[in-house]
């Protein structure tokens, strides 16, 4: 069993083999790969910053020196802080590309999902600002493979309005071929739609006021056909109902072929269908309704359209909510630019690893178990059941 564990660790260390060590030769008392593997393990076990990483490492020194190349013992806090501060986030994230692809391949084989939903959305770490030094709160855009529970990449940007420039960069980082890309209204841009189609993927993009002309045109086209119960167009409908937590909600999904006469149609590459989702919710006797409109490169199929829309909400429920509740990320006070970006990525990567573990315990309990049990920690890290 020890050999299996060591082989797993050696394989993980290889992901950092081509990462250039940004430290001066004087400061290279601990191998970069060992520093990063310890940081990864510590975050899995509950660490939320360099001090916590160093504290965990000191308590686990006997375990770590048997597993990693640590000729001078475990590093101190300043080592972890310095490394995570000077590593360029893009280079750090690139190290995990092969690892993430292997996790994605395994999840594809396990689930049988051939056309995964890749949801793109932004998140702000509200307490990571440093107004005194002119540093705003970190806002990053990430891509979440909803059916797999995998975070495949992230790009930091100055604020929410900069998502328009961050999304194309993010799409270049991830293999999107064959996937369905879902983005909220901020990312509904002609250039982004073109990039997705050119990447041999499909899109389902939400509409709001930032695309006012298209939004109004889609609303008008759907409402016009609704009056005749969609008798004159190719359309598909699906209705779902669910009751949970004192709330009863009915969702109606309608998707129809895009009219050739739709104003502004031509610049939207691959646009084949438009859709609407009507949500009627009853809670404590009070009824509320919400209507959302979409454009898509998918052919008309309400079941697939509904799956894409619902899966997009998973980035909020399964990713962002977990980061805030399990990792308490929204409370993070890390205020150095690269350090907070690299730590945000460590949070997303370790969340993905926890979600791949087949155990039925909650994420909170799995993370605690990583801190309690070295064997369980290695199981999660290696993606196995040793």
From TrEMBL:
<dbReference type="InterPro" id="IPR002559">
    <property type="entry name" value="Transposase_11"/>
</dbReference>
<dbReference type="InterPro" id="IPR051698">
    <property type="entry name" value="Transposase_11-like"/>
</dbReference>
<feature type="transmembrane region" description="Helical">
    <location>
        <begin position="35"/>
        <end position="58"/>
    </location>
</feature>
<dbReference type="GO" id="GO:0003677">
    <property type="term" value="F:DNA binding"/>
</dbReference>
<keyword id="KW-0472">Membrane</keyword>
<dbReference type="Pfam" id="PF13808">
    <property type="entry name" value="DDE_Tnp_1_assoc"/>
</dbReference>
<dbReference type="Pfam" id="PF01609">
    <property type="entry name" value="DDE_Tnp_1"/>
</dbReference>
<dbReference type="InterPro" id="IPR047647">
    <property type="entry name" value="ISAs1_transpos"/>
</dbReference>
<feature type="domain" description="H repeat-associated protein N-terminal">
    <location>
        <begin position="13"/>
        <end position="100"/>
    </location>
</feature>
<dbReference type="InterPro" id="IPR032806">
    <property type="entry name" value="YbfD_N"/>
</dbReference>
<dbReference type="GO" id="GO:0004803">
    <property type="term" value="F:transposase activity"/>
</dbReference>
<dbReference type="GO" id="GO:0006313">
    <property type="term" value="P:DNA transposition"/>
</dbReference>
<keyword id="KW-0812">Transmembrane</keyword>
<keyword id="KW-1133">Transmembrane helix</keyword>
<protein>
    <submittedName>
        <fullName>ISAs1 family transposase</fullName>
    </submittedName>
</protein>
<feature type="domain" description="Transposase IS4-like">
    <location>
        <begin position="115"/>
        <end position="351"/>
    </location>
</feature>
């Amino acid at each position: 069993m020890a050999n299996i564990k060591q082989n797993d660790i050696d394989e993980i260390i290889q992901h950092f083999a081509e990462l250039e060590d940004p430290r001066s030769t004087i400061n290279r008392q601990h191998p970069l790969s060992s520093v990063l593997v310890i940081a990864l393990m510590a975050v899995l076990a509950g660490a939320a910053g360099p001090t916590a990483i160093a504290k965990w490492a000191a308590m686990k020194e006997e375990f770590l020196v048997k597993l990693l190349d640590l000729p001078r013992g475990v590093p101190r806090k300043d080592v972890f802080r310095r490394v995570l501060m000077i590593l360029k986030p893009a280079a750090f994230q690139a190290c995990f590309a092969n690892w993430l692809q292997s996790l994605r391949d395994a999840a594809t084989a396990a689930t049988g999902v051939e056309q995964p939903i890749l949801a793109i959305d932004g998140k702000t770490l509200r307490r990571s600002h440093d107004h005194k030094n002119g540093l705003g709160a970190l806002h990053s855009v990430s891509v979440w493979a909803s059916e797999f529970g995998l975070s495949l990449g992230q790009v930091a940007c100055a604020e929410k309005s900069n998502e328009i420039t961050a999304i194309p960069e993010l799409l270049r980082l991830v293999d999107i071929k064959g996937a369905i890309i879902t983005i909220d209204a901020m990312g509904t841009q002609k250039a982004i739609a073109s990039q997705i189609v050119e990447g041999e993927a499909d899109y389902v993009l939400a509409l709001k006021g930032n695309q006012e002309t298209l939004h109004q045109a889609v609303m008008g086209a759907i409402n016009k056909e609704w009056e005749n119960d969609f008798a004159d167009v190719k359309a598909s409908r699906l209705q779902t109902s669910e009751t949970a937590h004192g709330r009863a909600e009915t969702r109606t999904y309608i998707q129809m072929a895009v009219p050739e006469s739709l104003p502004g149609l031509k610049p939207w590459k691959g646009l084949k269908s438009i859709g609407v989702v009507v949500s009627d919710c009853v809670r404590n006797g009070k009824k509320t309704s919400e209507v959302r409109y979409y454009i898509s490169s998918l052919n008309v199929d309400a079941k697939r359209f509904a799956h894409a829309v619902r899966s997009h909400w998973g980035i909020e429920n399964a990713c962002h909510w977990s980061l805030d509740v399990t990792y308490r990320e929204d409370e993070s006070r890390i205020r150095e630019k690269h350090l907070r970006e690299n730590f945000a990525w460590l949070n997303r990567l370790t969340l993905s690893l926890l979600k791949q573990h087949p155990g039925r315990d909650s994420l909170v309990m799995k993370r605690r178990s990583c801190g309690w049990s070295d064997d369980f920690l290695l199981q999660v890290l290696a993606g196995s059941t040793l």
